[in-house]
Amino acid sequence: MKSILATMLVSAGLVLTGCFAKIQHLPAQPQGAEALFAPLPDQDFMVGLAVSGGGSRAATFAAGALEALAETPVQFKGSARSVLETVSYMSSVSGGSLATAYYVAKKPPKSEAVLGEQGLSPRYREFFSDYKKAMQTNFQERGLIRQLTYFRALNPTKLAYSLSEVWDAQFLDEITFAQLYERELRGDIPRVILNGTVYNSGQRFAFTTLPAADFDYDFISLLTKELKNPNRPVPLTPEGMAIIQKGLDEASRQFLPLTFERIGADYRNLRLSLAVATSASFPPVVGPVTYQIEGTPRYLHIGDGGLFDNLGTESLTTLFLKKIPQGSPKRGLIIVIDTSFPFDAGAAALDHNDKGFQVFREDPSRVVGIMEERANTYQTLLWHSLRTQGVILPDFAHLRIVVLKHVDAEWTGYQDLPESCRDDFAADVTPLQIKQAVALIPTLFKIKTPCHGALLVKAARKVVEQYKHRIVNFIEAQ
């Protein structure tokens, strides 16, 4: 009886939610006007940061990783710089979008030196201190308070707005995409891509000031041309080619992202914070955010950007492939800041639990995680298979990916722990136990303990140190 009542209450809540949905209206693009955001010059060498989802865990680890990258010197275009100064693009999903938004809204201008005589300059030391602290705020509590204050309880769509308003009040200051573009135009920040998912069609949605044409990498045509190559070692039969062609035609619509430019919306006054909340929403808890272009009957329901690609790499890879065509001297480096929840981290608990449904109490997104894990596996297999062919994708000398994953940090033992964690671990704790503790930090929009925050920041510094030679060597090989 209790379970039936609970189901009825949840259903009633969802019905009420639908009755009071909030619509984000956007003006249509002016007819015959020039592009809302003029294209900026391309570069011969590009560095992109892909920042994964994972709530405040991802945001905190990203802040630590960006600080460690800022402290890493590199010779670039004939002068000593910070690795962070070479970054030209940032692509993110979910919690990573929060970290990205803070970075581009609050980062000092390019006139401010990143490195001083002893590591970071004073301005950047202050910036990163505030950055790491802000990412560890209990946003869940603040969002809930705002929901109750404005009578928005039981409305996940409006919770997305509550979170965006909390972020604006605390650090984003209602910055719009027009203001974001001004910072990009001055060269103060990288070009930004926040990723969401269109629930209407399943397509990726890119919140960005970049031209839509920058993502038009014609992967399908290139692959089809290669498959039809008569000099292939094993030519395809006409029947086989017809079957493959049909599948590729159906896949082509999903490969390219939608953008506001592509659908004719004027989003210059859209707040960056709402794009972050859209990217980070996870219905039925938060969102989706519904957009409508004024004068049109169509509604776009956009939510979690990590349903397929929780790393933020898909938009960035598509962009780089478009800008580094076969035979081009251009080169690109993608640094992936990966704090996605390790899928096998919950396996041990399930192995010894005779009530399988209990796993959803601590990991409610596990079903989505299964789909994401398998999708990423096939995506990786496809990527590496095509890289070995040297035809469809650039070779390793022209496009390199370096992954900085929070669970890859190498620990030595108790003395290696941050000071705030000394009471949380036994003196004989093993490196593996520390690594497992880091892996089990949950996906929430809060950091549960000071130790969790400190572990994430130190893990970030460790993985950057472990892999910085790959980053520096590729940049200096220009």
From TrEMBL:
Superkingdom: Bacteria
Record InterPro entries: Acyl_Trfase/lysoPLipase (IPR016035), PNPLA_dom (IPR002641)
One Pfam entry name: Patatin
Domain spans labelled PNPLA: 49-316
Keyword ATP-binding in record: no
Entry GO CC: cytosol
Gene Ontology MF terms in the entry: phospholipase A2 activity
BP GO terms, sorted: glycerophospholipid catabolic process
Assigned keywords, A-Z: Lipid metabolism
PANTHER family documented for this protein: CYTOSOLIC PHOSPHOLIPASE A2 (PTHR10728), PATATIN FAMILY PROTEIN (PTHR10728:SF40)
Listed name of the protein: PNPLA domain-containing protein
